[in-house]
Amino acid sequence: MCFSATASFTASLSLSVLGIATLKQTTSKKQLLLATFPLLFATQQFFEGVVWLNLEDKSSPIYFIGIYVFLVFATGFWLIFCPISVYLLEDHPLRKKTILGIAVIGAILGIYLVSCVVRQEVMATNNLGNLFYNLNLLYDFKFAFFYDICKYLYLLVISVPFLISSQRLLAVFGILIIFSFILADRFYQATFISVWCFFAAVISSVLLFIFFDWKTALSRN
């Protein structure tokens, strides 16, 4: 989480519990990928907690492990995982093809963004209670317009599959993702990556209720 080590580890533990509960609500193998979201966010928040604990020892290998694991999740993993998890649930042919196309775009963008991360020595600093990652290749003002394109393309890749899914409850999840993006971008521009990942982690808890609804509806039929 973006506020402190204690908050990060608390979020990680809470999401782990929610993640296990979410997995127990699944009724088919196709649902497993989406159901792991809370557990995966728990992992991501755990590693950001590791970063917090090592802010005063920037030479520590653990400090850099925490940074790079967190950022690989943030810049690459979700771009592929989000559309693919919805793709597996989709039965409508046109929507399925559209989501697959979005997944390809996500993979290309993810490879680029992860390459930006691994090509430099990224440092994390406490910026007014939030973690700031000095991703110079992303934030270089000479490429500000290109950065904005990448940012909004990222939003498209991880939200549109949920919005167009035949599983209508997933549209709620997609709307919450967009809302959290706007909130983080409006009020936390400098620490956008850390804060938005926190918001997204919290939002992933909604999946427990979605899966519970699906399981309940199935038991009635």
Structure report:
The protein is built from ten helices and two strands. With 221 residues, the protein is mainly α. It has one domain (5-208). Strands 1-2 form a two-stranded antiparallel sheet. The chain is globular. The termini are far apart. The relative contact order is 0.15. The model has no long low-confidence stretch (mean pLDDT 92).
Structural class: mainly alpha
What is the end-to-end distance?
40 Å
Count of DSSP-assigned helices: 10
Number of beta-strand segments: 2
Mean pLDDT level? 92
Enumerate the spans where pLDDT stays under 50 for 5 or more consecutive residues. none
Sheet with the most strands, sense and barrel status = 2 strands, antiparallel
- Strand share of the residues? under 5%
How many structural domains are formed by the residues? 1
Share of helix, binned: over 70%
**Order of helices and strands, N to C?**
HHHHHEEHHHHH
Give the key terms.
221 residues, mainly alpha, two-stranded antiparallel sheet, 10 helices, 2 strands
Summarize the structure.
The chain contains ten helices and two strands; from the N terminus they run αααααββααααα. By secondary structure, it is mainly alpha-helical. β1 and β2 form a beta hairpin.
